[in-house]
Write the structure tokens for this entry.
Amino acid sequence: MLKATENWTRRSNGQSCLSTRTRYLLAPMACLIGILALPQPSGAQVPTYEVTPEESTIKFGVDSSVSIKGVFEKRNTRITFSSRDVRSAAIDIEIEADSVNTGSHMKDNKWKSKDLFNVKESPLITFKSTKIVQTGPYTFDIEGNFTIRGVTKTEKLTLTSDSKGTPAGNLDGTMAFDRKEYGMTSGIPFIKIANRVEVSVRLKWKQTSGPPPVFEQ
């Protein structure tokens, strides 16, 4: 009888120890499950924008003895936010260099050639923002990596917004660069062409989800 009692006591103590260890093991697991069950940050907590290609334009012009102005027919622009702060926005522009249209096949072919855009070896012209500074209630200076002909340099795009906190609007901007700094040292036959190339953009955007961005006052 005494042995039976001792065996029962040992089993009871063993089960008690096992139960205690089980509780210690389960407690951290329960905390982990609780953390995972909490709502996680999502894209809906930041502004989400969509740029409409059909209603947006990217144009360029060069001072020359004969008017040279063109538009890129194919381009894609993305605007993303990492927070509600409007300065957290990132702008990513991709242009298909082969889509240049100056209204003249001769000029188009020259711009597409290896002397200028070199579209066969460098089919894309890109601008990827690295820093956004709000310079006024509706104006921004955007520094970014501009790549053309495979050469990348820092350039500045100045943008003006026509709205603040609305579900849709326009961003109008300008940028200028020296074509020779990107290896475009040749000219166009019989046409005197300047080195400075001026670019203008109009981005038609709409907000698809999330709260509106917060501007500096």
